[in-house]
Every structure is written in structure tokens, then in C-alpha cells.
Amino acid sequence: MQDLLVERSAAIARREKFEASEVRRLFSNGSPVMRVLVLGLMQGEPSLADAATLAGAIADGRSRNEQFQGLRLTARCWHMLPRSGQQAIRIAISSAGIPASGDRRNEANAVLALPLS
């Protein structure tokens, strides 16, 4: 069900204009469900994403789905992030306690394989 809500959040972000600072504030102050929905908005409009939010979703996710969505979004936004942000995300992945196998590990490995800018 959360995946469907993430997809709908992404669709809304493709149609509506959101302020990046407000979206990031929602993520910082939001409940676990709200944080995942905000990642959906960022998937629909990648310019809303920033390295600090992505690293937070990965290293300090409130749920496994938040961590998964954060990793997936990171792969999509990687080319837009500054090198320092990319490095911070790599550190977040290494300290996040991601299991050795499974979907989150696959997403983490895909991000780690991306070149630094």
C-alpha cells in the first residue's frame, strides 16, 4: 500500500509545484508515513531532493520502506548531487546497517557503484 501512495505522491509532484524548503521541512518533522510520502514527492520532482534528506532517509530512516525509497531516489538524483553530497550518502550507506541481501542491499549496491562527480 505504501508503494502505491509513493507512486501517487510522485504523480502529484509532477502536476503541482512545491517549495523545496517546505517539502524538506515536512520530511524533517514528519511521521514515518509522511517521510515516505515526501520521498514520493521527490521522486516525482527530483529538484525537491537534496543530499541531506537522502542521507537522512538512508542512515536514519524510520522504516525499512523509507530507507528503500531513499536509496531508490538517490540513484535517480545522483547526477544532480554535489560531490560532497555523494560522499555523505556513501558514508550514510556504510553506517546504515543495511542487510547483506535483499532489495535494500541491491539498491545500496547500485548507488555505491555510481561514479562520484
Protein model, in words:
This protein has helices at about 1-15, 20-30, 30-45, 50-60, 65-75, 85-95, 105-110. With about 120 residues, the protein is an all-alpha fold. The model has no long low-confidence stretch (mean pLDDT about 95).
How would you concisely characterize the structure shown here?
The protein has 117 residues and is an all-alpha fold.
Give unreliable regions as ranges. none
The rounded Rg comes to 13 Å
Structural class by helix and strand composition? mainly alpha
Distance between the termini: 35 Å
- SSE string: HHHHHHH
Q: Name the beta content range.
A: under 5%
Whole-number average pLDDT? 97
Number of helices: 7
Characterize the overall form: globular
> What can be said about the biggest beta sheet?
none
Q: How many β-strand runs?
A: 0
The percent of residues in helical segments reads: over 70%
